[in-house]
Amino acid sequence: PPFTNQHYSFLLNSLNMANQNYKQVFSFFLLISLLLSDNVSSVQKPLDLKKPCKNFVLYHHNIAYDTDNAANATSSTVVNPLGLGTFDFGKIVIFNNPVTTDENFLSEPVARAQGFFFYNQKTTYNTWVACTLVFNSTQHKGTFTIMDANPMTQPTRDLSIIGGTGDFIMTRGVCTFSTDLIQGQKYFRLKMDIKLYECYN
Amino acid sequence: PPFTNQHYSFLLNSLNMANQNYKQVFSFFLLISLLLSDNVSSVQKPLDLKKPCKNFVLYHHNIAYDTDNAANATSSTVVNPLGLGTFDFGKIVIFNNPVTTDENFLSEPVARAQGFFFYNQKTTYNTWVACTLVFNSTQHKGTFTIMDANPMTQPTRDLSIIGGTGDFIMTRGVCTFSTDLIQGQKYFRLKMDIKLYECYN
Amino acid sequence: PPFTNQHYSFLLNSLNMANQNYKQVFSFFLLISLLLSDNVSSVQKPLDLKKPCKNFVLYHHNIAYDTDNAANATSSTVVNPLGLGTFDFGKIVIFNNPVTTDENFLSEPVARAQGFFFYNQKTTYNTWVACTLVFNSTQHKGTFTIMDANPMTQPTRDLSIIGGTGDFIMTRGVCTFSTDLIQGQKYFRLKMDIKLYECYN
Q: Cellular component terms, GO, for this chain's entry (chains A, B, C) (predicted)?
């Protein structure tokens, strides 16, 4: 159980009363101890979204395979859409995309984004994505994984960060995607605003 | 480090001794401070399963695409079973299913369940599922993601809730699935009993 | 907010001053209470990697389906590689593999590993994996899920454990994979060194 304001108040009161009535203080603390000996029920606390323990922006570049660009392609459709609607329902894409600190996809990558996404809506373009950022530089070694619905037609969307390893061991948080640039079927760039709220390293 | 009963006892004892021996108290606290300055080793505490911070029941409706029902279908097989056994091993289904607060699939959806599942057993029907509930109503905005094995032949099965965004930011918990109704290959309804044990909003 | 050394110091100082100046103590505590009444900003603490709350080693056996071994096969390719490079980019495998406590794949399984992986690199063998360990023995009932990039050519690699149910409810941690044995395309064995840092059961 976390140490709350109520506990502080108890201590405060106890200190004030210390010279007055030791026995009363004793029984108060005994009561608290008994109450606290229960199981943990659950964690319920508001999170200050403005104060992540780590916050940084990265750019994610996807170059789709079109059978002619094997040298440059970083992602490919592996299951074709099935014709349920006209928004690619059922299409699955696997990727291993470079991740950079600026918008230039020729910049030295600081990570690779490895994962897949698929289209799952009949009435608009909408994807579900699972993606691990793999860092292997002098600055960062480790991974963390993003997974969530990705309603691409919205200007920004929040996706869950659910775990990590190495420098990002056990991390959790939120990644805000915004589609920075789309060039037809060939290339898109995502801005990823990464906010970690649990940092253990 | 969490504030435990032991710490309370120390404080309690310290208060009792306060007028007797300040130096002893001082060294006790110094000892505690030194002990607590270590790294966090790990979290080990029992969870009272009867006290989630949020608990609600939703119904998940899956209408399978059969090539004739494009208007109504909400899910579709995208990879066919490969013939390893007779329980659909290898079949992959992508869905975007309505989620309602009661059993009627015509009720106004409160969320969409977006994700996929696949069959992975030779000897019985058994799936593995990943699924994000996307809430976009006046009551709730946000997402959380369920992921786990789903042994469909058992009357109830627990699946992990691993993260979320918006109203469900960083949430974790357990979702108990029970198959409410199956109508051949065309329709099934899942009851989802959602218990969140970490709530930050 | 966790109870830190700073809080201890405050209390310590307060106790020391208790008989000297009650009003000063009072205002100090009032200040602390006000500071602590803010929202939780984030969790930032180092994790002692040597002290998991649970640590055990399991072996994961994968027998690939080759159309002739339906009786023994525990995994199968469900989407074939697409020819982008020569390292199986795009190949998806679904598995339901036995997990044992020793290296012998004929030992009584203590769990099944259910999930999928896919190849996602043009220049070497590299996979991304999602996998739930399903325990159903007298010793353990429950599940936990592993998910991460799996750079198979490295001797060891850390993967995130992101959640669980039953005996492993809400668990988190890291699983270190090492490829123990490969027999061509037919069989491989993974050693899984499982370290849980959040245990609620």
A: apoplast
